[in-house]
Design brief:
81 residues
C-alpha cells in the first residue's frame, strides 16, 4: 500500500478523528473507504461505457458514406500542409 501525506483543515481532521472513533476504525481506514466510495461514484457517473456510447450514437450520421467524407477531409488536410 502506498503511503501518502496530506494536509487537512483542523476541523476536517477533528471530524475524521471523531468519526473513526465512532465507527471503531483507524482514521486511515475511514479515509480509504471514503476514497473508494468517491471513486466508484465518479467512475460510474463520469463517462459512459464504450458499448453504451456506441449503442446511443449508432446511425446518427445521415449524410452519405461517412468513410468517404472522412477521407475527403483528410485529403484536404494533406493538401493544406
Amino acid at each position: 500500500m502506498a503511503r501518502t501525506l496530506i494536509n487537512l483543515d483542523p476541523d476536517d481532521k477533528h471530524w475524521l478523528d471523531r468519526e473513526a472513533r465512532k465507527r471503531h476504525l483507524p482514521m486511515t481506514e475511514l479515509v480509504r473507504q471514503a476514497i473508494r466510495s468517491y471513486r466508484v461514484r465518479e467512475e460510474s457517473q463520469g463517462r459512459p461505457a464504450l458499448q453504451d456510447a456506441l449503442a446511443r450514437t449508432a446511425g446518427i450520421w445521415r449524410h452519405g458514406d461517412g468513410l468517404a467524407w472522412q477521407q475527403r477531409m483528410r485529403d484536404e488536410w494533406d493538401r493544406s500542409a
